């Protein structure tokens, strides 16, 4: 770098302050004036300033002098390579130095001497290299090109989202067709369709019922073990099998207590809590289901078929993720329904106090034979008033009892089951303890109908608390062995509010179906949820329909449907064979 010559000269001493001496001191004698004038540097600027003035650089020794041929003559005001910048000051002929603030031209020519480029941003679009730009000039950002790139990126993102949604809709549509086009009951050509009711009409219904009347309480209940409330994924408990305890799934017309109440003319409509819950939560259902309706005189009976879908529990019914279509797959809708029913029955017995005291009620279990071991269950027969001439009696189930605030409280026990985290997207073992609300929200999305039916059954039975267990497979490919990860408790009315379950709308659906069926003549009918559309249909069927309708494939877990009084002898052999097959499979899995 070429440096300008700099000569040291004599500077007069000013004993009164800063800067050159005053002109009056210099003119005191002719001899001193000539000496002072000779010693003053020519063209050296000086201007007084205050502390509030902003000062720039007077000299810049870092200017780029690599191209001296292109610069103007040295010393000019526009010389970019000059070390000193005198453009901001005016020099008087008598060596009086004044500021250039009064000259507009010189104000416009003033600039700060700073050759360092501004810092580059860490984020944002990168600068484009343009060979036509001057090297000494910073590259300029092209806003038009940036905006064009943003528009193109937004179009591409919208195209990908549209393609992704189309693929998801196609998968969802195919899965629903594969699962829903299979009706829960084979519609025969001789059946006559009487009514077709879309679910959209159900949402507008509303009916308020009075407090029900308890007619009878049968069975016996064991106390709930509060130790399970402290269960976490870190101290999980193995789900046990209760092979010796019998569970009963008896339909309405086969219930001896309901037959007795019908003879006593206690009501005109009879049903069970499971059947009423299926009707009340019908708009939330996706899979097909059916209910048999019998009109006998002025009485109306709502029944279920043997081996009906109502005996099983749906899994991932309201989910958008597809399930395997093969029926023999362990993750198919049918296999998961059987597994869920098996888990619920064993869970409801494991969380009880072993060999503890037992609450007994007015009558014993009406379906149990003398001497056999039965599960902890109580049947509550309750009567609701639908209008002045019509009452409804329903059999409601309770699974346990507990002491809360020195008062006896009834409980319902149910369990959600996790079969493979990749289907739900939430791993219970990782999220259940820290993000319990997220796990429950996911289950409400994937199993909304099942949770709504459990809540409706708890409300019908007037349970004080709902206990919901979270049960998972030991391994995603092992559907025989399970562990209990957690148990949560909810009040039915509060939980119904959380899941947006309106009791007035529930009873409005039941009242409309009852009024419609009471207008039918005597005979047998079947109400079927359409397999592919959100609607139900009512068919008139022959009187002997479903009487010889046996399940083609027996349930692999004998606890799902136990024999009733009418077919106890024939079912004992099939139950024993199913138990033996189950034990062999479990031994193979453990090995």
Automatic annotation (TrEMBL):
List all Basic and acidic residues biased stretches: 140-159, 579-591
Q: Which GO terms describe its biological process?
A: cap-dependent translational initiation; formation of cytoplasmic translation initiation complex
- Domain comment quoted from the record: The RNA gate region regulates mRNA cap recognition to prevent promiscuous mRNA-binding before assembly of eif3d into the full eukaryotic translation initiation factor 3 (eIF-3) complex.
Region ranges (RNA gate): 309-323
Identify the GO cellular component terms for this protein.
Answer: eukaryotic 43S preinitiation complex; eukaryotic 48S preinitiation complex; eukaryotic translation initiation factor 3 complex
State the InterPro entries in the record: eIF3d
Where is there biased composition of kind Basic residues?
123-135
Assembly and oligomerization? Component of the eukaryotic translation initiation factor 3 (eIF-3) complex.
Annotated localization: Cytoplasm
Q: Which organism is it from?
A: Arabidopsis lyrata subsp. lyrata (Lyre-leaved rock-cress)
Task: State what protein this is by name.
Answer: Eukaryotic translation initiation factor 3 subunit D
Q: What does this protein do?
A: mRNA cap-binding component of the eukaryotic translation initiation factor 3 (eIF-3) complex, which is involved in protein synthesis of a specialized repertoire of mRNAs and, together with other initiation factors, stimulates binding of mRNA and methionyl-tRNAi to the 40S ribosome. The eIF-3 complex specifically targets and initiates translation of a subset of mRNAs involved in cell proliferation. In the eIF-3 complex, eif3d specifically recognizes and binds the 7-methylguanosine cap of a subset of mRNAs.
Which residues lie in Acidic residues bias regions?
549-560
Q: Does the keyword Repressor apply?
A: no
Ranges of Low complexity composition bias in the record: 565-578
Question: Where does it mainly reside?
Answer: cytoplasm
A molecular function (GO) term: translation initiation factor activity
Q: Give the family per the record.
A: Belongs to the eIF-3 subunit D family.
Disulfide bond in keyword set: no
Check the record and name the Pfam families matching this protein. eIF-3_zeta
Under the heading PANTHER family, the entry gives: EUKARYOTIC TRANSLATION INITIATION FACTOR 3 SUBUNIT 7, EUKARYOTIC TRANSLATION INITIATION FACTOR 3 SUBUNIT D
Task: Name the segments for region: Disordered.
Answer: 113-159, 549-591
Q: Which UniProt keywords apply?
A: Cytoplasm, Initiation factor, Protein biosynthesis, RNA-binding
């Amino acid at each position: 770098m070429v440096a300008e010559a700099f000569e040291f000269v004599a500077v007069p001493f000013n004993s009164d302050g800063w800067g050159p001496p005053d002109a009056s001191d210099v003119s005191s004698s002719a001899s001193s004036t000539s000496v002072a004038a000779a010693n003053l540097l020519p063209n050296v600027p000086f201007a007084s300033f205050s502390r509030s003035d902003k000062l720039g650089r007077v000299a810049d020794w870092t200017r780029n002098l690599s191209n001296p041929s292109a610069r103007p003559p040295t010393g000019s005001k526009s010389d970019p390579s000059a070390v000193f910048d005198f453009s901001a000051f005016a020099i008087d002929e008598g060596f009086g130095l004044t500021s250039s603030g009064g000259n507009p031209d010189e104000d416009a020519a003033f600039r700060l001497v700073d050759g360092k480029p501004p810092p580059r941003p860490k984020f944002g679009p990168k600068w484009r290299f343009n060979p036509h730009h001057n090297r000494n000039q910073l590259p300029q950002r092209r806003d038009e090109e940036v905006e064009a790139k943003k528009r193109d990126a937004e179009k591409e993102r919208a195209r990908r989202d549209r393609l992704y949604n189309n693929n998801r809709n196609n998968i969802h549509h195919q899965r629903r067709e594969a699962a829903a086009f299979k009706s829960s009951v084979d519609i025969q050509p001789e059946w006559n369709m009487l009514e077709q009711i879309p679910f959209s009409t159900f949402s507008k219904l509303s009916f308020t019922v009075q407090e029900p009347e308890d007619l009878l309480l049968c069975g016996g209940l064991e106390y709930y073990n509060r130790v399970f409330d402290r269960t976490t994924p870190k101290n999980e408990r193995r789900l046990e099998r209760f092979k010796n305890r019998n569970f009963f799934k008896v339909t309405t017309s086969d219930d001896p207590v309901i037959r007795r109440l019908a003879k006593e003319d206690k009501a005109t409509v009879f049903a069970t809590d499971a059947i009423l819950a299926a009707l009340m939560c019908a708009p939330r259902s996706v899979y097909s289901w059916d209910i048999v309706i019998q009109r006998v005189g002025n009485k109306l009976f709502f029944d279920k078929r043997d081996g009906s879908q109502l005996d099983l529990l749906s899994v991932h019914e309201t989910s958008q993720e597809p399930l395997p279509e093969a029926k023999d797959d362990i993750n198919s809708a049918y296999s998961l329904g059987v597994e869920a029913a098996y888990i619920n029955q064993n869970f409801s017995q494991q969380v009880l106090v072993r060999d503890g005291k037992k609450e007994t009620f007015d009558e014993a279990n009406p379906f149990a034979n003398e001497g056999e071991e039965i599960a902890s269950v109580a049947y509550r027969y309750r009567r609701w008033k639908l209008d002045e001439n019509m009452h409804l009696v329903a059999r409601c189930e309770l699974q346990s009892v507990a002491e809360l605030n020195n008062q006896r409280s009834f409980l319902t026990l149910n369990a959600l089951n996790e079969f493979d985290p990749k289907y739900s997207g939430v791993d219970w073992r990782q999220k259940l303890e820290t993000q319990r609300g997220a796990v429950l929200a996911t289950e409400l999305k994937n199993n909304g109908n099942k949770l709504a039916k459990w809540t409706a059954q708890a409300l019908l039975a007037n349970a004080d608390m709902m206990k919901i267990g979270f049960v998972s497979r030991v391994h995603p490919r092992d559907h025989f062995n399970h562990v209990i990860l957690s148990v949560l408790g909810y009040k039915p009315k509060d939980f119904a509010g959380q899941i947006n379950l309106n009791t007035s709308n529930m009873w409005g659906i039941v009242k409309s179906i009852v009024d419609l069926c009471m207008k039918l003549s005597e005979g047998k009918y079947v109400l079927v949820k359409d397999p592919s559309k959100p609607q139900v249909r009512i068919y008139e069927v022959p009187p002997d329909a479903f009487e010889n309708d046996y399940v083609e494939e027996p349930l692999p877990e004998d606890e799902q449907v136990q024999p009733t009084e009418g077919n106890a002898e024939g079912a004992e052999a099939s139950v024993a064979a199913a138990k033996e097959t189950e034990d062999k499979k479990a031994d193979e899995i453990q090995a």
